[in-house]
Amino acid sequence: TKFLEATIKHQLEVVKEGLFDDDVSGTYTDCFPVQGSDRSYFLKRLNIRRVRGADHELVSASQIRDKGLYVPEGLGLVVIGSLPYLVFEHVSNAIDLSGIYGENEEERRRLNAAKQEHEPEIYRLLGGYVQNMFDCGVRDEDMALRNFMVEFGRGVERVFMVDFEKTTIQKGGLSELQRARTLEQFFELNVLSDERRGYFLEGYSQM
Fold first, then answer.
1. Which residue numbers in the chain have pLDDT < 50?
2. Which of 40, 47, 70, 179 might form a disulfide with 24, Cβ 3.0–4.6 angstroms?
3. Rg (alpha carbons) of the chain, rounded to whole number
4. How many beta carbons lie within 10 A of that of residue 58, not counting itself?
5. At a CB cut-off of 8 Å and minimum separation 6, what does 40 contact?
6. Residues 4-42: b if buried by 16+ CB within 10 A, e if exposed
7. What is the pLDDT of residues 147-204, one digit of tens each?
């Protein structure tokens, strides 16, 4: 009941504020945390035309976890008020690397400040994480910064991926050609400063 009430409340706010298009066709997808009775969840709204792809995201997340690489656990698909949502475990005290998503404005400001303070470490961890992805046979065609999150504890806890719509998983690691092409795609999607790019490549080369 608590889960449903929180989700419906969020939907009403989205409609009232006009925050996201109805077809979820823009760059940013409506994502938000919901507190349940005994745990919190992270909901990602789906384009109604892509509901059949929900299985792909959930299965991909499960397979990646099986390979020992951390991503949030995929829990299922719910439809509330005619709108479909993917449900994942919620990682608290975390923000995407583009700094867009957060539980509220105050939380976004706090986490973005922490992200800026720990920028070298975060981008080194991102580089290492991407290298681990490649070693595990995980390739993604939408490796935008908004699809990676950083979790904070006493410091930086970890960096991890949160979007699996364009993820493919193969047996064995990626070939050198696949790695090069995917990295090229990554740098085309994300215009990084020379410093950030350097930190990323440091982390990537150390794994």
1. 15-27
2. 47
3. 17
4. 19
5. 33, 34, 90, 92
6. eebbeebbeebeeeeebeeebeeeebbbbbbeeeeeebb
7. 999 999 999 999 999 999 999 999 999 999 999 999 999 999 998 999 999 999 999 9
